[in-house]
Every structure is written in structure tokens, then in C-alpha cells.
Amino acid sequence: MQAAYVKGPPSGGPFIFMHSGLVIALWMACVVVLQVMSPIALAVATGVCAIAGWWFAPSRSLKLLRRVRFLILAILVLFAGFTPGEALLPATPELSPSREGLVLAAEHVGRLVAVVLCVALLLEGLPVSRLVGGLHALLRPLGRLGLPRERLAVRLMLVLRYVDSAPAAAWRDWLEDDGINGNSADRIVFAREAFAWRDLAALLVVLGVAALWFGVTR
Question: Per-residue pLDDT tens for 124-176?
């Protein structure tokens, strides 16, 4: 297995004017912020993610949401059915979910759905070569500590390449060296991008919006 870098301006995807490492870093920041949002802000954010997912990545968003449908159902049952509180149906309190449980269930489902939609937008917006190249760039500081950045990037690209085509029972093969390195003739290519002035401008805009948002919501 051979790994090769491609230098030059980014190409492909709606984030063509941003460094892929910056896009991934902002995505991770959004995921973290979703976990600490108030219920009202979370409802707004989930609605925005739903609109963005429907507009930019409808098929991928539906595919990922279908994969977590049983997890969503489990969250609803566990929180709504086993959280103490006021019964939603006073006539049958033993079988009725609690109002407090429904609120908690809706909040946790909203966080999960928003994160899943963010994942769909990231995968739709960044080609695999840029996605792995961005992760490789973010891991650069850890490379000085001996972390094998190239190996991690290559393995991640292989997983992303075969995740949609490999059968469900073959996921264990991704953890085996023989399964990953079975064809030595493959050539892995991922993008290496330069941090440009537009990336700095985008970062400043995001920081300004974040500061304004925190100032208004506090």
C-alpha cells in the first residue's frame, strides 16, 4: 500500500474555499457546543441542521438517521418511561410516560439528531481525500510525539472507501493488517492544503459570530 500527497488548492465540495483541517476543527467545535446548549437554543440548532441536511445532503442525512433509529427509540423509551415525574396520562399513571421524561428524551434525541446531521454535512461537504488530509493536518502537532500520522490517515481512508460497499460482517477485517494491506498495488492519495488568508478570515468571522451569540444568550 502506497500513500501519496497532492499539494495545491482544495477542490471539490461546498467547503472549497476553506482549509479542510479548519472545517473539521469547526465541525468538532459545533458538536461540542451542541452538548451544552439550552433546550430552546438546541431546538433552533436542530432545526437549522435539519434544513441544511435536507438542502445539501438529503440522501446521506436520511441514510444516517435510519441507522440510528433504534437508538432514538431506545432513548425515548428509557427517558420517557423510566424518569420519575408527573404522569402524562393521569388515568393510567402506571403505563404513562412522565412529562419530565419526555422533555429529557426530546432533548437527548435533539442532540443526537443534530450531531448525526452534522456528520452527514461533513461527509457530504468534504471528499474523502480532503477529509483525511484535514485530519492529517490536525494531527501534525502530535506527530512530534511519535504518533504515526500517515498510517492513521491511510487506514482512515481505507475505512471510508470500503464502509459503503463492504458487507456488515466484514468490519472486523478493517482491524487486521492483512485485510488492509491485502493489495499492495493500491495507491492512496489525500490532499495536503496550505493555510491561506481566506481561512484566517473565515476563522475570524466564526469567532466573531460565536462571541456575539454567547453575548446575546448569556
Answer: 888 877 888 888 888 777 777 777 777 777 777 666 666 544 454 544 554 55
Nearest one of 82, 73, 80, 81 to 103, comparing CA atoms: 80
The residues with which 192 forms a beta bridge, in sequence order, are: 7
- Tell me how far the alpha carbon of residue 36 is from its chain's centroid: 16
The distance from CA 141 to its chain's CA centroid, rounded to whole angstroms, is 22
- What global pTM score does this model have? 0.76
Does residue 21 surpass a pLDDT of 70? yes
CA–CA dist 113, 101 (Å, integer): 18
DSSP structure class, residue 96: P
The Cα 148–Cα 18 span in angstroms is 25
Rounded to the nearest angstrom, the gap between the alpha carbon of residue 58 and the centroid of all alpha carbons in its chain is 15
Angle between helices 58-67 and 99-125 (to 10 degrees): 130
Number of alpha helices (DSSP H) and beta strands (DSSP E) in the chain: 10, 2
Average pLDDT, the chain: 77
Task: Give pLDDT, residue 132.
Answer: 80
> What are the grid coordinates assigned to 143, written together?
506527530
Task: Label the pairing between strands 2-7 and 187-192.
Answer: parallel
